[in-house]
Design brief:
It is a single chain. By secondary structure, this protein is an all-alpha fold. It has a domain at about 1-30. It is built from one helix and no strands. The protein has one helix spanning about 5-20. The mean pLDDT is about 90.
């Protein structure tokens, strides 16, 4: 699903999947949206 998508597009997909939950206050949210073929962070 994330393959070939820019980081912003990946985050938008996550926000859309969270739907109604995104309308409530969130203290902090860290997203690491990677496709299976993406390299691990720091690799």
């Amino acid at each position: 699903m994330f393959s070939g998508q820019a980081t912003v597009a990946r985050h938008r997909m996550v926000y859309q999947a969270l739907g109604e939950l995104m309308r409530h206050p969130i203290h902090a949210l860290a997203i690491q949206a990677r496709a299976p073929d993406d390299p691990a962070p720091g690799a």
